[in-house]
User: What shape does this take?
Amino acid sequence: MSNVLVKPKTDLPAVTPPDVIPLSSPMLAQLTAALGVPRNVLAEDDQIAHTWSQLPRLIKKIPPHLRDERIVKMCVAVASGLFDAAINYVWNAAVVELRDKVRRFGINVVPQILDDKSFDEDTLLDLKDAELLDLCRKLNLIGDDDFFFLDQCRATRNSFSIAHPAAGTVDEDEFLSFLSRCQKHALSSAHNPKGVDTKSLLAALKATKFKKDQRQEWERRIQETFEAQRELIFVMLHGIYCDPASGEEARLKRHRNLRIVQ
Assistant: This one.
C-alpha cells in the first residue's frame, strides 16, 4: 500500500447546472417563486458566480487540516446565495482555531501569565469573541494587525450575519473580504508560541543537576515562547541567582538558563 499523502483538492464544481448543486440558479428562482417572495432576497446569479469563482484561491490558503465541515457549509451557503450564513461559518471556524491556539500555548500556563487562577478549559469556552481576541493578543498568538482586522470581522459578523439578523445585507465583495481577513489573520499556519510553565521550571531548577537532554528541552521551551514571557523568566531567574540563600548548584543552573533567555 502506498504511503504517499494525497493533497486535498480545492477545485470546486460549477454552480450553474442543477444536477451538480440542487440550490443553483433555476432552483433558487423556483423556490422564491413558490413562496411568493422576490428572487432578489437572495444573492443574484452573477454575485454567486463571482464569489464561487474566487473561493478556490482563498481556500487554498487555508491549511488542509483547517478545511473542516464549517468550510464545506460555507461553500454550500455561497452556492445558495446566503452570504450572511457563509459569514457565520467562516467566523465560527476562526473562533475554533483561535481557541486551539490558546490550547497549544498551554491552558495551564495562561493563569501564570494573566495572574488569573480560575482560568481553565471551561473558562476558555465561555469567553466572548471579543474577550478571546483580547486574550490571544495578550499571549502574542495574534499581533496588533491581526487583532484589528479580526475585531472588524467580529463586528461585521455581529451586525450582518445570520446569527444576528439585521436589516442590512452583505454583498459578494464584502464576503470575500471577510473570508480573506479570517483566513490571513486566524486560519493560517503561522507559528504558534508555546508558554513556559514557570512552576515546573522552578521545580526542575530546585531538583538534581540537569542532564543534557533536560537542559536542551528547557532551552527549547524558553526559546519558543514569546518575548514578554522570556523577559519575565529572565527577571525571575536573575532574582533567584542573586539570592544568597540559593545553593551553588541551583545558582549555576539558573546562570545557564539566564544565558538562554538572553
Q: What stands out?
A: Residues 83-105 form the longest helix (23 residues). Residues 25-30+42-185 form one domain.
